Structure prediction request, 456 residues.
Amino acid sequence: MSDNVWDYKIFWDEALKEIQQEITEQEYIMWFKNMEYIGSTESSVTISVPSSFYKDQVTQRYQSRLEDLLFELSGQRISLNFKVVRKNNPGKKKIQEREKANLKVETPKKKKKHPMLNPEYTFERFVIGESNSFAANAAYAIAKNPGKGYNPCLIYGGVGLGKTHLIQAIGNSAYQEFDNLKIVYVTAETFANEFIQSIQNKTGHLFKNKFRSVDILLIDDIHFLQGKEGTQEELFHTFNALYDSNKQMVFTSDRPVSELKSLSDRLRSRFERGLNVDLQPPNYETRIAILRKKIEEKNVDIPDEVVELICKNIKNNVRDLEKALTKLIAYAELVNKNITLEIAQRQLKDFFAEPNQKNITIDIIQKVVADYFGLSYNDLRGKKRTKAIAFPRQVAMYIAREMTEYSTTEVGLEFGGRDHTTVMHACQKIEDRLKTDPTLEPTILHLMREIKEHRI
Ligand code: ADP
Ligand code: MG
Prediction:
């Protein structure tokens, strides 16, 4: 063996075991499960992390402690380098699988209940998968370091995807962690109502005082503020006051800020400041993980085939997954029977009813669209970016989103592994063009009919 081959992997592995003892299991899973040992030099160890966000977080939180541990273990000063390695294709799966792992429920040291927050909305109960990991990690980082980094933060996504759960988890976690923080959670609707009432009762000063003296302001569903100019104005001033004093703000919305209508430009630009993260519908594996978690929490016995049945049929709303489960449990208790596949199929018929859209695959959509535009199926799915292909590809992506339940991430994967933002962009393009090009709608309707007839 030559002298300059260094391998400090054993020390790294030992250091990991040590640090695991020092932090909570949740933190360990959150930050260390996504690291991989890359290699060593005489005086350093390089570890891969999946994103710059991770790198910043782990550097700030753990680097010096880890370097001390490496020193204790090896007797030498070894510096630690974190390297961002984006694992796209083969490796990505591994990381995603790990991300999907549930955060284990830890026994909280103390438990206080915040009057405005639902104590069930915690990070421990939030299952992380590919569709929500960025938002969940950002939320977690905010809860641990309010006002320090991602300020403001806006979490957006469709109905039932966990916006309220995450924004409240920030509040719950910070409330347990820090003793003297004033945390306020309201829906935008409550904010608006309280504001209007304060005008009627001439208690504007109390209203201002309530919202401008907080350390963490959490406002849920800001899409509700569309068209409400007075409330927007008030929020604008609240925002500025808090922003100037580095107080944390988190908002949620059912769509990206750019799609919020009747919102003043200055408020829009405030929301766009800081970090905007989206929640996508969970993929099949994440849905299974979420449902299993709910089953575990409710402490009931449900066969795997029933879990699979539910997750195959309910695709883009976590709340509906839960509702299906609640309904089954209620039924089983009522008739005093075990839940079987047969019972589930019968009882959940209504939840699953979407008869005319079944069996439409992206594959069929791609074939029909390629054929219509005189392109090859492979070109449409592939990486080429010529204009002749780009537009039909956008049409196909748009139709895939309209006619199937696949998430933008899943659609992107079927089109040469493109990112979900590309799919969102394509859909937006088509929607814009539908407004100006009168020939496009009949074309798309024609294609949709063809696709329906194609299905097996
Ligand atoms: P939104 O506010 O986006 O409409 P919610 O936060 O109310 O959605 O979520 C709907 C339900 O689904 C809640 O009961 C929430 O606990 C649950 N839920 C959503 N995402 C997850 C997840 N990743 N893990 C566990 N439960 C989830
Ligand atoms: Mg909500």
